[in-house]
Amino acid sequence: MGTHGRTGVERFVVGSIAAQVVRHAPVPVLTTAADVEWDVETVLVPTDGSSYAEEAADHAFDLAARYDATVHAVSVVDQDAVGFDVRSTRLTEALREQAQAAVDRLVARAEERAVVASGTVVDGHAATEILETVETADAGLVVLGTHGRSGVRRLLLGSVTEVVVRGATVPVLSVPPTDRREE
């Protein structure tokens, strides 16, 4: 499905058809800008350790095996969510440890399926860092799980998936939760 790259007020008023499809589709949706070439040597898999990310990783492993590509996992420690006080250092360290554990699990699962994998943990805003990692990892495809948020929760929390779909310079495969696929 193609994306138009609308931003600002136009996107808010008009909405994004691709984002709406990704948000509500019961099956994985592949989105891409019109001028993107399909050249997948590295599949980027963002992970927060959730079941959504684990499900998406399974799709990434299958695609990596099919196209003889590697998998690169990335987990983002959101510094904005931590705050700035004495306790924040310990919290940041704990979040980094959880992020590293999520990356390590994903890499191990890929290797169990004979897929070459690597991973990194970065600090920052999730969508921004995922988009930057597309470039630094030279990824040709992003595969990420959607959390299935809607309504006020999506409006307040935002959607990492929607920002990545709109901003990616490579195709993005958005994988919905299993329960949405079973409806």
UniProtKB/TrEMBL annotation:
Domain of life (superkingdom): Archaea
Transmembrane regions listed in the UniProt entry: none
The UspA domain, residue ranges: 1-30, 41-176
InterPro entries to which the protein is assigned, alphabetical: Rossmann-like_a/b/a_fold, Universal_stress_UspA, UspA
Family as reported in the entry's similarity comment: Belongs to the universal stress protein A family.
PANTHER family: STRESS RESPONSE PROTEIN NHAX, UNIVERSAL STRESS PROTEIN UP12
Descriptive protein name: UspA domain-containing protein
Lineage: Archaea, Methanobacteriati, Methanobacteriota, Stenosarchaea group, Halobacteria
